[in-house]
Recover the amino acids of this structure.
């Protein structure tokens, strides 16, 4: 009987702490959207320090924008990386951006491609577009129009307007065989990731 009571107490405590964490992240989001960035930082920081990927990402955004904290690209990268290493696609995308543009770190296309690929493989359309751009221009990867078209096609299918524009441009420079190969690769990727 004592084990059951003890187990129930532990389960109750865990449920309460999970609920409290959820409330904190939601409180932080609400504070952010009403422009109360200092409160957002106060809500996100403890969760971020405890390893919550969403809070880490959001704290990174606040440091990048300089909202509620002094603008600090190094801190933004730190928090993006923590969330990205946990597999959060939007953090992977932002970390790729930092490397691709050389914001807070030396510009490194290979590193940008690495992070964009991780997010793109999860279906993150902006990273799919950026990966297409990198292949189209040979930045961080060998130039490969078939791969570029594949990634542009996937991003376009998710509503990315820039990918639709770049897709139309690159197709004009490709043979029918290249376009067909890219479409097969995109269809295969879609099938593997949407079943």
């Amino acid at each position: 009987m004592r084990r059951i009571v003890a187990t129930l107490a532990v389960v109750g405590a865990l449920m309460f702490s999970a609920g409290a964490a959820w409330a904190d992240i939601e409180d932080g989001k609400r504070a952010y959207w009403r422009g109360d960035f200092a409160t957002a930082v106060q809500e996100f920081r403890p969760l971020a320090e405890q390893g919550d990927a969403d809070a880490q990402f959001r704290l990174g955004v606040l440091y990048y924008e300089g909202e509620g904290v002094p603008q600090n690209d190094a801190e933004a990268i730190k928090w993006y990386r923590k969330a990205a290493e946990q597999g959060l696609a939007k953090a992977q995308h932002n970390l790729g951006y930092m490397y691709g543009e050389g914001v807070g770190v030396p510009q490194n296309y290979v590193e940008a491609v690495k992070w964009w690929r991780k997010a793109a493989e999860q279906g993150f359309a902006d990273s799919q577009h950026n990966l297409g751009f990198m292949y189209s221009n040979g930045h961080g990867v060998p130039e490969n129009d078939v791969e570029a078209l594949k990634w542009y096609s996937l991003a376009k299918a998710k509503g990315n307007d820039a990918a639709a524009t770049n897709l139309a441009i690159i197709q004009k420079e490709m043979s029918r065989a290249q376009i067909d190969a890219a479409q097969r690769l995109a269809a295969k990727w879609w099938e593997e990731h949407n079943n």
